[in-house]
Amino acid sequence: MASDLIESSKKHLWLPFTQMKDYDENPLIIESGKGVKLKDINGKEFYDAFSSVWLNVHGHRKKELDEAIKNQLDKIAHSTLLGMTNVPATELAEKLVEITPENLTRVFYSDSGATSMEIALKMAFQYWKNIGRSNKKRFVAMRNGYHGDTIGAVSVGAIDIFHHVYGALMFESYKAPIPYVYRSESGDAKKSRDECLQNLEQLLEENHEEIAALTIESMVQGAGGMIVMPEGFLSGVRELCTKYDVLMIVDEVATGFGRTGKMFACDHEGVQPDLMAAGKGLTGGYLPIAVTFTTEAIYEAFYDDYEKMKTFFHGHSYTGNQLGCAVALENLRLFQSERIVEGVQESAQVLKDLFIEQIEELPHVGDIRQLGLMCGIELVSSKETKEAFPVEKRVGYKVSLKMRELGMLTRPVGDVLVFMPPLASTKQELRDMILIMREAIQKVTKEEADTIGSII
Ligand SMILES: *Cc1c(COP(=O)(O)O)cnc(C)c1O
Q1: What residue owns the CA closest to ligand 1's atom 5?
Q2: Is the pTM of this model over 0.70?
Q3: Residue 84 burial (CB < 10 Å; 0-12/13-18/19+)?
Q4: Which residues line the pocket of ligand 1, CB cutoff 6 A?
Q5: Which residues, 6+ apart, have CB-to-CB distance to 93 below 8 Å?
Q6: In this predicted model, what pLDDT tens digit does every residue of 332-390 receive, in sequence order?
Q7: For a FRET experiment, which of 168, 349, 377, 429 has its CA 20 to 30 Å from that of 454?
Q8: 66-337: which CATH number, 3.90.1150.10, 3.30.70.1520, 3.40.1030.10, 3.40.640.10?
Q9: Is 280 labelled as part of a ligand binding site?
């Protein structure tokens, strides 16, 4: 029966961000999950070391979350948010406004990180139009940034291997550099931060008259390789946006809801964005709800008599879905009662020690980047020269397959291993996961280095 399902998956499915030739060679079908573990149809268990792609908070089958959905089901599963609202969507909006940066007072729902970014882009664009400054219609994007896979989000994305193909479809945006300290010439955090800020200032000084908004991930570039921004960078960007009258759109899709050790990553620097996108952890990793937050000033620019044509004409079928909002509400309640954010700060320290003890010393580990429980381990061919492995070696991918064999799932970005366990992972679970990672890195990099050595 398991083999029938595998055959069926190969025959009918096309998976996201997946070369299906790879899938056919290494198929996997998950059947159930409990806590921080997933189980496949053959009964093999895996640690969910990437929180099912950066979503999961309390582990799988969390009793309170399961019950919140069941209870909501007894009332209604879904009704629309077009021109009306529902009970959990309204209650959730109030709770969300309480925990977001103070200036963000309005909640616009959608269903994925990409849509929440599309909405932020369109709001920013139309805001300037509505207040009679329609020359401000371009965007500044950060190099190496990632905001989702719809065309608007891709247009402000800048990861070549994902985005290059769609070049002709995208609207053009200005690109500003982001400090990637490990690979910067000086290797100095302050210096590369200041250079990037100077560069951005020049761009804004020259072009701010036509710039509507700037987009930036909050404190960590995720899909771009878990690149943690040096202290003072995000707040520096905020200052420049204010100075040049450019709206700041902060993408908290990956970093929001405790992941980095603060409720939102922009809280690390007290940054108040004009628009903020969030998703992933909002429902504890249960259901597709995302939000775009904005300020009263932006909201008011759309508020007028209908015939003035200032309405925000945007919506999705499942916007404000009751099941999703109900589970998100329960998720937020658990954040308080189980002190999740404080827990992440403690776990982050444990993890930091584990990295030093188990991972840092390995011969092909070039850089370890961590903010809270959001971590990237960059593998390199040479620690001294920081030279990368040849791309075609697919070392990151091979290490992830080895980890799978050893009972842990995570997806790398290139040769950067991603470690983003569920926020509620215990010390022992973190330790077990790091030991699996250590073994996989050792085995695979040794084999790869040997074959590279023998070619030379
Ligand atoms: C995952 C992610 C997105 C896209 O979210 P989806 O729900 O996959 O559409 C956007 N921005 C960042 C920073 C992300 O990590």
Answers
A1: 113
A2: yes
A3: exposed
A4: 112-114, 117, 146-148, 217, 222-223, 251, 253-254, 279
A5: 107
A6: 999 999 999 999 999 999 999 999 999 999 999 999 999 999 999 999 999 999 999 99
A7: 377
A8: 3.40.640.10
A9: yes
DSSP string, 190-253: HHHHHHHHHHHHHHHHHHGGGEEEEEEESSEETTTT-EEPPTTHHHHHHHHHHHTT-EEEEE-T
Beta strands, E only, 2-92: 30-34, 37-40, 45-48
In one-letter notation, the amino acid at residue 36 is V
| pLDDT tens digits for range 316-348 | 999 999 999 999 999 999 999 999 999 999 999
Tell me yes or no: is domain 2-58+339-455 CATH 3.40.50.300: no
Running DSSP on this structure, what letter comes out for residue 164? G
**Residue 443 · residue 402 · CB < 8 Å:** yes
Q: What ranges do the domains of the chain cover?
A: 2-58+339-455, 66-337
For residues 177 and 194, give the distance between their C-alpha atoms in angstroms, rounded to a whole number. 11
Expressed in angstroms and rounded, the spacing between residue 74 Cα and the centre of ligand 1 is 31
pLDDT tens-digit readout, 100-159: 999 999 999 999 999 999 999 999 999 999 999 999 999 999 999 999 999 999 999 988
